[in-house]
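Intended use. Records like the one below are meant for learning the mapping from a protein sequence to its folded structure. Do not use them to infer anything beyond what is encoded.
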Amino acid sequence: MASQTGVIFRVSTFGESHGPAVGCTIDGCPAGIAIDVEALQAELNRRRPGQSAFTSPRAEPDLVRILSGLQGGITLGTPIALLVENTNSQPDDYSETLALYRPGHADFTYDAKFGHRSRSGGGRASARETIARVAAGAVAKQMLAQIHSSPINVVSWVQRMAHIECPIITETLTQKIVDESELRVPDSATEALMKDFLTQLMNSGDTAGGLIRCRAQGVPAGWGEPVFDKLEAELAKAMLSLPASRSFEIGSGLASTYMTGRTHNDAFTTDPKTGRIVTTTNHSGGIQGGISNGMDIEFSVGFKPVSTIRTIQDTVDEKGFKQKLQINKGRHDPCVLPRAVPMVEAMTWIVLADHALRARLNRKDSLLEQSTPFSPLRGTKQT
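Structure written out for the chain above:
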């Protein structure tokens, strides 16, 4: 099973949704990085269940333990092992569906691949696995803040739930602003509509999907590894590896297929304040030719409706006999979007951390030097 991602900053996750624990190991984090455990825990708190009436009621503190790789809060350059215990697992909730294939879940495909599967929840396919990703993303975020001389900011928000769309966010957003919203929608009127819609779905035993938008600011020009490890390809792989994800669009995305070259091309100019080469528009989403161009990296990730619904469904058992499935137990989100926001941010940090380190291998200058704007017209660093 491919439970590892990254080339230099490598993250491996382990554990099942109703097993003893979940966690990860991180290889490739440089020595000498100060890790703020409280900040790491704060990221996990943003992801954990039980935050509101619109998330899974599973009561888990999700307290992280650092088993290796740090001494006195400083990375040693050796593998970092992070562990979060499952303290409120309820495997008996699935006793009535052990021999049935739940529609929309990975029960059948795991059996088809391995000839065996975890029968308590989704096992490795469960969103509980993403605890490890969020923990690794928090380490990646802190690492980048210390090896990169200028700040990088990553913020995600719920852009759409089913048919309810949030107005286009053009002003500067922060994680704090997004987190002030119970559904992580930075528009109060839109959030109210989404809450009403989600309440109706929950009362009828149904679920919803939607779209998360992510913006990464401060990423310098020059990150990305063409041709197979283009930055947008790495981001797409990272996002589509998340449970329930179904689509990825960079920049103008699918809308670009309706545009002409004249309207889609991002014209270059020079910022009079900084002397940096920039583009007047950002249809490319901050990446051209698989390499960051210094503009904001913007993309969207689509998530399907949660597969666990409370209505009767048609299915089959492991012998192929037709059955009726009625799920009365278990604790599930009616919509993954609010808790998927920190997951999208974490995977973005992991990809950026890996490509920041990979960028150092391709040039004779250091990463800190790369953070100084570079002008290809003059061939010199600008200050």
